[in-house]
Amino acid sequence: MRGFKIACLSVALCALMTSGAAHAKDPAAHLYKPDPAYPPQPAMFVLRDHDSSVYLFGSVHLLQKGTKWRTPLFNESLAHADTLWLEATFPDMTNPALLREYYKSGYDMQGNLSKRMTPDQRKDLEALMSDIGMQMADIDHLQPWAAADVITSEFYTARANNKHIETDPNKKYKRRKIIQGVEMILEKSGLGIPTKSIEHTRENMLKHSTLSDADQMAYLMNTVNDLRGEISVEQDSKMDQLFNAWVTGDLNGVHASGNKDMQEKTPGLYNMMLTTRNRQMTDAIIRELNGTGTDFVVIGAGHLAGPDSVLRMLVDKGYKPERIYDRREPELSSTKRKFSNPGYKQGKIYPEQLDVSLRRAKGDRADEIILRLSTPLSYQLCGDISPISHLVKEEEGALTIYVGPYYITQYPAAKKDDCGTPIKAASLDIPFALDDLAGDKPRILQMMAPGRMDSYKVTLSENTLLFEPMGPLSFFKPVNGRDLRLDLEESAY
Known about the structure:
Layout: H1 11-15, E1 44-48, E2 52-59, E3 62-64, E4 68-70, H2 72-79, E5 83-86, H3 90-93, H4 96-106, H5 119-131, H6 144-160, E6 178-180, H7 182-188, E7 195-197, H8 201-205, H9 213-230, H10 233-247, H11 251-258, H12 260-265, H13 267-289, E8 293-300, H14 310-316, E9 322-323, E10 331-332, E11 345-349, E12 354-360, E13 368-379, E14 383-385, E15 390-395, E16 398-403, E17 406-410, E18 423-433, H15 434-437, E19 443-449, E20 452-461, E21 464-469, E22 476-478, E23 484-487
Parallel strand pairs: 2-8, 5-7, 5-8, 12-22, 16-19
Antiparallel strand pairs: 1-2, 1-9, 3-6, 4-10, 11-17, 12-13, 13-18, 14-17, 15-16, 19-20, 20-21, 21-23
Helix pairs in contact: 5-9, 6-9, 10-11, 13-14
């Protein structure tokens, strides 16, 4: 995983994507075309001021075996760097707390992805999954964006292992041997310099979950079409164009071959994946340039191409990136080293009891209330405590909340600067529409934990929402020790 974990395994979708929008003349256009006086090599740039330098290298997140991409100039510049910046580092992306949040955001509790698709969409999806040994049941419980990520991961895993079913009996398309990309090679090499994420990893990993339903479905189907295309004769030449554009430093070719479909078909995704991220990376680069020392930044080549590129944004802000070349030929570079354990420690804890309280929703959501479950804690640690895990299900005659553990994640020494304030509680806020809790008849709300169950009768009378225990309470107890009441005419908290 790179950048946005599984999604960014796709060269076509991540490393080689940028703007195709209609803009005024691009003041950075002179930076996109390689100088033929030098040997072909991936695009590399530098920004300098009186006390600092920032090198920019456009990468791909997957390589074809045998590719010569790493120049002596690349090595010399990296050797002088005080910090290596990647879109996201392996330790940041393997934070257990973040991964739990990532996976949870991709689940559709109703499990009905197939029902959200048209017959033609499902036919195309199943054709691709058949080629890589998957079935609809493998992804039917996922949101469309998460399904796209899983399919992409499985596709490239199968391709890297040469396990595709042969779809071209005449063998007209290439069987590329895919290996780890630039970032993984650098990060696994143990360079001896600090390696940091230039993007906010949590925001980047969860960004797809903020897309509209329409953009999510468009993202899924574009992914399906792109991946199906990669095992077709027609798409094979396009993939060659994309990869050759990168390895020769032709950023105009990267832009022309890899991005127009996304911009035209999914503008919301395009803006999120490129324009917004490029703006954030530009700000981070300027921040480092305003400091001291030497920084080496490696980001997908698509972020350096096109009229919404990082280069364009730097020029628009008055900076002058310089394209640099090596007169020496690039060399092979790969690695078989494995990542060392980042050193996270984690534990799973089941609460002994949960306090229950009611609150009004914030803002103008007058038809919504918050049911809060919490347990007191006293921790001072460099780490994270997750919300209490849960599942809400509509069952015959009752609404049931299943509650599980919360998780403690302790950060490794490298992340000690992330230490927070004392943690006083593990909690869970569950929003409910009033209509789901109370109507003309009393509603039964069951709360279940391993080996425990408490029930409440929920009624709404004269603007007062009442949760009345239906017997002695053993686990889910009102925070005030009695029943739960909420005056709906009071101001929201």
